[in-house]
Amino acid sequence: MSRLLLLVLGACLLGGCSPFVYLNAFSPEEEAREEIDIAYGTLPRQRLDVYVPATPPGGPAPVVVFFYGGAWDSGKKANYRFVGRTMAARGFVVVIPDYRVYPEVVFPGFIEDAAAAVAWTFDGIPRYGGDTSRVFLMGHSAGAHIAAMVALNGGYLEVEGHSPDQLAGWIGLSGPYDFLPLKSRRLKEIFGDPAPRTTQPVEFVTPVAPPALLVTGDADTRVIPRNTHRLEARLLEAGVPVRKIVYPDIGHGRTVAAFSGLGDDLPVVDDVESFVGDIVVREPMQFEARRQTIYGEAR
After folding, report:
1. Which domain holds residue 80?
2. What is the pTM of this model?
3. pLDDT tens for residues 209-236?
4. What domain count does the chain have?
């Protein structure tokens, strides 16, 4: 970690403040135009923020819908302005939704909210210069689980009148994808006791899943890296394009803190940008032909 980031976070911890204050303060605010608290539903936490490059990129921009973490029971979009601003500075249109969390909802309530936010993105993001053929989901920690469930289990988007077929890809940062059996009482309350396998993203991998970038650190003790390894193996077995990056000596929070402007030398943003740039957008007819080849019938 950079010396500056260490000093700032250390001072924050000693002062009892939230590290998000500093992560946001050092982000490139001047390079993004922000529109906040846009409704994608009728409930208080069904709101999202949009970050648009301050300098128009000269055409429709790739879109990232980012889901923050918080163990499915906490978090707020305002804490992650640094993600939106940094990605907008790289030429992305970024959507960061809030979603309902425990105890207001249990599984799958937060997944349903996420799918509704993605549906809003497909319908509304052209007004902000976003390219609907290049929509990527991205999440950190519990948010990576949410992104994976929306990308891999088509039922959630289909309820909203859309489909994972429309996604160009998805990015998981330090995500839990195969984490049964549950040990925490709170997690048992959120997912069920015993939690069904249908709560796990690895159960929904199919050959037509969107391409994936899976990022983790080998020193992560909160969401152990085997979650990433197991999902990668399942995706490879299904023939889905997947890129896995394991950063040495990196823990859980660094994979998202690297989006700040504090000089962290971890290349997460570069790796995400490279992944998005390498994706060849699938034409709908080509995708449908592949589905028929695999399953023997049209949807």
Report:
1. 3-295
2. 0.90
3. 999 999 999 999 999 999 999 999 999 9
4. 1
